[in-house]
């Protein structure tokens, strides 16, 4: 148990090992709910860093955060820094005294700088000689004098984009500050921060207990706020209580709550004393696409929507009130009254959009600019449709459906619903296409067109959706690179990094048999009238390879392994991945290190050849059995791996080639490659070239590090 005695209010206690519980609470006007958890985490981390820098050890840490407060409880915090011992080294003894033993000017000067005399200095013997030294003892400072600056720095380092002033104060913070609690044990830490004097009085719920609450001790902080002030100060505890309240309320009316974690965090940041209220709306509104209704409830009203046991949206929702009202029905009616106009707007937009087909909106895309040098949304749709059709033919999809989906892909952007609810793009396309009687795969593809929307998001599943999504990203990459607007530093206004990562995921995870370079060439050809730069395809390919490298590095794949495969420039990303897996397996073989070294030696030898290397090997020029054995081994392996290469069985290929280790080692031990006879030398180089080509069929293993 911590000793809560702090000694004189800001004086040093007897004994440096004393500790006391520390409490800091900053009370404010309502903080931004989305940022609340981030602010709390940042403040906690910065405060603890400050304690570490001050060498104030402590025990368990607990952060608290509500709409009106950021708080921190630190158990068993030292009430003073420990005393410290340091040593100042002066001149060497040899230089510090003359032959008669009298101190030199250097010794006397060092002693004066230490505030002592030469005879009080000590000596330190090292392997490099003997030195005069002065031992310095420094008493640790009281925590009371250190804590204000630690708290101030932690507050200054909070991630607040824009700070505000209030009243006549010059202080700046994210919201006006109302009170501050700062206690070490039962004593107040004397300071003023943000124009607010530290004390031991907190405040309760704005309505249930607006009066002050005198904190008896730091460890009783959360308990007092809950019992006296109607405040659940613990963010995680409050979050879990809301989650359970929503679940139980949903079950009470036969529904299920689909709880969005981000919405749960935001609601947790809006209330201090959560009370669930179940409300509803007219069944007729369910005619509207459910995603629009859910978006309205979540984004605008912070409601939790409910679904039935079949997963269909119910005409009920749950809101979390910040007050335990004696008349909860009034809160229910108020929320129903507020949401009704928004749902009415959504229904109006849905019905208005039904008066026009997606097809009829294609021409309107000509009036919307995609990018000045790349034309309108209509121009982009035409290119994407053509490229999607090509991709569909490569993956055994329907070319006509892919082209149709490409032309319709942006039409929902012209709908009233998407203008009002931008997050409905794609989703609205699917609904409108179904309403228009388009093929199911086309309708689904219009939604899949945007997938993956973010890192880790699901991928398109239909072949039409895959072709469309991939075509969109490749057209954007080639187009933007072609006009010289590639990303620089952290600037990426067209989200090209995200586009590249999305395209790579689609090709890799769906194992698509598409030639990336061919697709980039096709995209560039479709953009020919826009005159893209001559090296655009190479630039985009390199950009995508850099992103692919990042993907593998994140999966703990060594960079040399990636480079070994990249050197062979595989046609497809799926093929790239198969080769990566094969080289991983090869690297685990006992022969791998020796063969990698041999291949590196071969590559160096071949690079030094001034004349072209022959493609054929003449066995009649062999002068040793080692040459003959290697030649026979290469011939055998060529026949053995040929069917394996056709089946992309790269792991089996490398496992088979690993058995060449003995003839390869014997060759280099007994044979001089660079023979004096030009014919023999050329023949041996041709033999090594054939050997190298076998491995290069999978990867350049000469790049692998030992």
Summary keywords:
25 helices, 4-stranded antiparallel sheet, Alpha-Beta Plaits, alpha+beta, Glycine--tRNA ligase beta subunit, Gly-tRNA-synth_heterodimer, 706 residues, DALR_anticod-bd
Protein architecture, described:
The longest helix has 26 residues, at 328-353. Helix content is 47%, strand content 14%. The strands form six sheets. A five-stranded antiparallel sheet has the order 2-3-1-7-8. A four-stranded antiparallel sheet has the order 13-15-16-14, sandwiched between helices. It has five domains: 19-81 and 142-229, 2-Layer Sandwich (Alpha-Beta Plaits), CATH 3.30.70; 84-138, no CATH class; 235-353, no CATH class; 369-411 and 440-556, no CATH class; 584-703, Isoleucyl-tRNA Synthetase, Domain 1. A hairpin with a 2-residue loop joins strand 2 and strand 3. It has 706 residues and is α+β, with helices and mostly antiparallel strands.
């Amino acid at each position: 148990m911590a000793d809560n005695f702090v000694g004189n209010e800001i004086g040093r206690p007897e004994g440096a090992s004393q500790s006391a519980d520390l409490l800091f609470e900053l009370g404010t006007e309502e903080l931004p709910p989305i940022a609340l958890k981030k602010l709390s985490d940042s403040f906690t981390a910065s405060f603890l860093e400050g304690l570490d820098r001050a060498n104030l050890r402590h025990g368990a840490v607990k952060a608290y955060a509500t709409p009106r407060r950021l708080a921190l409880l630190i158990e068993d915090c030292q009430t003073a820094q420990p005393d410290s011992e340091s040593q100042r080294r002066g001149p060497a003894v040899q230089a510090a005294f003359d032959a008669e033993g009298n101190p030199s000017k250097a010794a006397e000067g060092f002693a004066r700088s230490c505030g002592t005399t030469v005879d009080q200095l000590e000596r330190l013997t090292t392997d490099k000689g003997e030195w005069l030294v002065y031992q310095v003892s420094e008493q640790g400072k009281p925590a009371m004098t250190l804590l204000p600056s630690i708290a101030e720095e932690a507050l200054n380092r909070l991630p607040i984009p824009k700070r505000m002033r209030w009243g006549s104060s010059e202080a700046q913070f994210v919201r006006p500050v109302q009170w501050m609690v700062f206690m070490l044990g039962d004593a107040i830490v004397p300071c003023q921060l943000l124009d607010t004097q530290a004390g031991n009085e907190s405040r309760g719920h704005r309505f249930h207990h607006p009066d002050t609450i005198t904190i008896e001790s730091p460890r009783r902080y959360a308990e007092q706020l809950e019992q006296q002030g109607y405040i659940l100060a613990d963010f995680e505890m409050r979050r879990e209580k809301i989650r359970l309240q929503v679940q139980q309320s949903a079950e009470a009316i036969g529904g299920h709550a689909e709880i969005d974690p981000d919405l749960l965090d935001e609601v947790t940041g809006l209330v201090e004393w959560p009370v669930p209220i179940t409300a509803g709306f007219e069944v007729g509104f369910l005619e509207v696409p459910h995603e629009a209704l859910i978006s309205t409830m979540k984004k605008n009203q912070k409601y939790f929507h409910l679904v039935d046991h079949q997963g269909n949206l119910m005409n009920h929702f749950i809101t979390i009130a910040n007050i335990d009202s004696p008349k909860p029905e009034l809160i229910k009616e108020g929320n129903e009254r507020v949401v009704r106009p928004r749902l009415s707007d959504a229904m109006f937009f849905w019905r208005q959009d039904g008066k026009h087909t997606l097809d009829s909106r294609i021409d309107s895309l000509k009036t919307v600019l995609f990018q000045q040098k790349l034309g309108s949304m209509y121009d982009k749709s035409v290119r994407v449709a053509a490229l999607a059709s090509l991709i569909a033919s490569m993956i055994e999809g329907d070319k006509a459906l892919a082209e149709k989906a490409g032309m319709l892909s942006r039409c929902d952007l012209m709908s009233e619903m998407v203008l009002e609810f931008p997050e409905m793009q794609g989703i609205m396309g699917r609904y409108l296409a179904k309403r228009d009687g388009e093929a199911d795969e086309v309708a689904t593809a219009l939604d899949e067109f945007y997938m993956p929307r973010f890192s880790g998001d699901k991928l398109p599943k239909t072949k039409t959706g895959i072709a469309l999504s991939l075509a969109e990203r490749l057209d954007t990459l080639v187009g933007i690179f072609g006009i010289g607007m590639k990303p620089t530093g952290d600037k990426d206004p067209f989200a090209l990094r995200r586009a590249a990562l999305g395209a790579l995921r689609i090709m890799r995870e769906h194992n698509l048999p598409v030639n990336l370079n061919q697709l980039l060439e096709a995209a560039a050809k479709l953009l020919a009238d826009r005159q893209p730069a001559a090296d655009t395809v190479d630039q985009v390919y390199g950009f995508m390879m850099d992103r692919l490298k990042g993907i593998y590095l994140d999966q703990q794949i060594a960079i040399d392994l990636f480079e070994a495969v990249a050197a062979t420039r595989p046609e497809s990303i799926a093929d790239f991945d198969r080769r990566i897996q094969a080289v991983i397996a090869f690297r685990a073989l006992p022969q791998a290190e020796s063969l990698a070294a041999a291949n590196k030696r071969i590559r160096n030898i071949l690079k030094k050849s001034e004349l072209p290397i022959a493609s054929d090997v003449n066995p009649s020029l062999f002068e040793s059995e080692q040459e003959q054995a290697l030649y026979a081994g290469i011939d055998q392996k060529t026949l053995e791996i040929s069917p394996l290469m056709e089946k992309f069985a790269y792991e089996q290929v490398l496992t088979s080639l690993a058995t060449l280790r003995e003839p390869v080692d014997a060759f280099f031990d007994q044979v001089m490659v660079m023979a004096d006879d030009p014919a023999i030398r050329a023949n041996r180089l041709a033999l090594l070239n054939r050997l190298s080509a076998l491995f290069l069929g999978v990867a350049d293993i000469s790049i692998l590090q030992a």
